[in-house]
Amino acid sequence: MADTYTEIYKEMGLKTKKVEADGGYIGGDYCHEYQVETEVGEGVFFETEDGSYCAHEDVAKFQRDSVNGDQEPLPMETIEQPDWVKTMEDNEKHYGLPAKHFLKNVVYKNTTTNEIIIVGIRGDLDVSKTKIEKILNATGQIESADEEDLKKLGTKPGFVHSWGLDARYIGDLSLKSVTNFIGGQKTETTDTKNVNYGRDFECEFLADLAVAYDGAMTEDGTKKLIAKTGVEVGNIFQLGYHYTKMMKGADFIDEDGKGKPYYMGCYGIGLGRTMATIAEIHNDEKGLIWPSCIAPFQVYLAPIGKSDDVFEKAEELYKSLEKSGIETLYDNRRDKKSGP
Question: Taking 80 as the threshold, does the pLDDT of residue 114 lie above it?
Fold first, then answer.
């Protein structure tokens, strides 16, 4: 079916990418989006130069590069810090170090349970809400915590600790990529340095919770990821037994006479998005150039002038085209000028 999708879009003049994606509410084992790469696209995906890996930013996996890997873990200590240092940019400016050297904590709330979730991550990376929802099996239930939520924790923006608060702590894999972090226990005038995961603090678990970035390496470290933008024009959901195992009677009798659940797939082509993307790509200074398979007509036949001979020849040509199965718009108006 995946190859069929590719051929369908190819016939319509679109070069698509089969992009690993998140199934969201629909669920299932895995899914793919069909993206058309274009600068006006609203979706972001990552692809290797050879095309062997292609994934939406919601699910793209990547390797966390090592920071201070040549150092030994030093004793954690509390250090003085000016009160104006509150954001990651402030930290970079004050310490003269890139963001990857700092601990960052991003706070979320489960809207169903009201549980507060603190995600620990390296300072240069962004948290993927989609990955959090997937790992916690909480699709559509995770949102950013607000200042009132932080107040109830006894903290405020810029001062969230990496351990010690009454919240659920989970962490990105990047927490293990840095030796001697800066940050983690900020106050108005101090913070901590030489903080190391596993020795000084731990989370409930570590997982892939970060958004990939342009230039990151693939999970196995062999190829570079390139960030691209595109328009999603279709998708395939490999539902597997996600629904049929919950349905009574959604099974069949196999060749051995045993009942087995149906294996499902879900397939969609966004007609509106597809037509808009075709229009975006296939045009020139005079307007749209519809690919032949979706053009309303293959030929526009317009006899010019008012001569009966011209119209007779045009009539013959029109009938010949119709007989050949060529869709033709025959403009037989005698009072027209020179175009439709």
Answer: yes
